[in-house]
Specification:
The complex is a heterodimer of chains A (359) and B (228). Chain A has a six-stranded mixed beta sheet, with helices on both faces. Chain A has a five-stranded antiparallel beta sheet with strand order 2-1-4-5-6, with helices on one face. Chain A folds into two domains: 220 residues, Rossmann fold (3-Layer(aba) Sandwich), CATH 3.40.50.300; 125 residues, Beta Barrel (OB fold (Dihydrolipoamide Acetyltransferase, E2P)), CATH 2.40.50.140. Helices cover 21% and strands 36% of the residues of chain A. Chain B is mainly alpha-helical and 228 residues long. Chain B has one domain: MetI-like (MetI-like fold), CATH 1.10.3720.10. The chains are: A alpha+beta (359), B mainly alpha (228).
Amino acid sequence: MLEVKIKRALPGFSLDVGFSVDGDILGILGPSGSGKTMTLKCIAGLIQPDEGLIKLNNRVLFDSSKSLNLSPQVRKVGLVLQNYGLFPHLTASKNIAYGIRNSTRSEINDRVSVLIEKMGLNGLEHRYPRQLSAGQQQRVAIARALAPGPEVLLMDEPFSALDSVTKEQMELELLGIRDFYKGSIILVTHNLAEAYRLSSRLAIYESGRIAQCDHKEKIICSPASRKVAKMLKIRNYLDGFVSDISDSSVWVTIPELNTRLMVSANGRNRLAANQRVTIGVFPDYVRIEEGPGQNALLSSLDYMNNSVSTVNYRFSLKTVSGRGVSIETVLPKSEARFLLPGQECYLYLPPDHVAVIDS
Amino acid sequence: MNEYLTPLCVSLKTVSTTMVVTVILGILAARWMARYHGRLKPLIDGIFILPLVLPPTVVGLVLLLTFGKNGPMGQLFSLLDTTVVFSWPATVISATVVSFPLMYMTARSAFELVDRDIEDVARTLGAGKWHVFRTVTLPLARPGIIAGAVLCFARSLGEFGATLMLAGNIPGKTTTLPVAIYFEIQAGHMDQALYLTAIVIFISFTSLVCLAYLRTPRRKTKTVPEIV
C-alpha cells in the first residue's frame, strides 16, 4: 500500500497531488509537463517535495511535518525510466545484480539467473546494454528494478521508446511480471490506450493536479470534467440536464435538439434530477441508422474521409436555434456506408456507451 | 652521466607526486562543480582555470607571496618549522597549480556527460552516494579522467617559470629538466642542453601519443551474434 500526498512549487508550475495504490496497477495519464515524472521522482526520493506525506507499507518515506525524508537507497522503490538508465559499462547480468545487497555471491547469481529466465533474457547475460535491442534493454531494466525486491515499482513512460510491435509484446510481458511481483505498480504514460490496457485504475493529471482518479471504467462512464473527457478522446458533446431517473436508466433532455436521450445508470456516479450534465460519446460508438427511434438523432453529413482501415464522418445535427452541433463517427471500412454531403440520416447513441459528464 | 640523470630524477619525482595530488584534487573539484549550479559557479570556475592563462611569472610571484616568509601559507609552515620556498616541495606546488586547470576542465566535462538518470537509478537500487560515485560515475567518466591525467603529466613535466621562481635552481633538489636546460644554455653547455631537451621531447611526445591512442575508439574485435 503506497499513500502519496505531496506538494511542490516551482516558478510557473506547482504539483499538488494525492493518491494511493494498493497492490494494483495505477496508470498516471496526462500530457507532458503535467508533473507525472516529478511525482515518481518524489516517491523514489530523488526530488524532495515541499510538503506532504509518502507512506509505503507502514513505512514513512517522507513526512514534512516531522522533517523526515528517507534517502533513495533505503526506500525500496523500484524505478524504470523512459530511457531505462542501464549502466553502459556493465553487462546485462551485472546490471541486474547491482541492486542485490547483503547476499553471498551464489545467492546473487541464483537471483539473477531466476530473473534472466523470467524476463526471457537467456543467452544475453554477458552483453552490454548497447548490444541489446530496445525491448531487451527494457527487460533488463525491469529485472534490475525488481532484483532488490522493491515494495513498489515505478515506471516512467516505459514503452515510449519502442516500436509498436515490440510495444505490444512488452505490454504482455509487463502483465506477465504480475506472476512473480505482487507489489503495487505505478505506470506513467501519455498514451491513453496503453494506460487503459495495463492499469486497473487511472489518475488523470492536469497541470500538476489530479483531475480524476478512479477505476478506469468509471472514469470512462463518468469523466469528472470536459478536460478529462477530452483526454480520453471523447469527441462528441451534447449539453443538457437530467429530466428523469429510474433504477436502470437516466433520461437526459437536450434542449438544443428538443429530445431526450436515454443512458444506462449502471456503474455511474449517482445523478440527481435537473442536474446539468454533458453527454459525451466516443466516435467509435456512434452508429448510422436509417430511421428514427430512441436515442437516434436526425443529422446531415458534412463530409466523410477515408483512412487506412476506417472511414471518418462528420455530421451536423438539426438544432432548435440553428446553431451548428456536430457529431463525429468512425466506422471500419467493412461496415462503412457511402453518403453524399448533405444527405440525412439518424445517428444512434447507444445508452450503455455514453459518458455523462457533470457540468 | 650523473648530471643528465639527476634533473630527470628530480623531474620524475616531482611529476609523479604532482599527478597524485592533481588527479585527486581535480576529480573532487570537477565532481563538485559538475553538479553545482549556484550563483558562484562562474566565479569558482574562473579561479580554478586562471593559472592556465596567467604568465608563469605571475603565478610564480603569487606563489612566492603566498608561501614566502610573510605569506599566509609561509607563516603556517614556519609554525611547523619548515620553509617551502627553494625546497623540493615547491616544485610540486608550482607544478600542481599550473597543471590543475587541465585536470579540472577535462574531468569536469567528463562528469557533466554522465547521465544524471543513471546515477539516480543506482541510488534507488540501494547504493549510497559514495558507492554510486565509485561504481557508476567514476567508471563512466574514466576516459576523461585518464585524458586529464595525461595532460597533467605533460604539463607538469614542462613546468618552468613558476618552478624557477618558487623553487629556484638547487641541483639535485629543485633543478627539474626544464630548469636544467635553461641553466645549461646560460652556462654555454649546448651539448648537455640538447641532450636534456631530447629527453623532454621524447617523454612528452610519448605521453601525448598514448593519450591519442586511448582516445581512439577501438574497433570491435569480436562481434556478438544477434539473438532475437
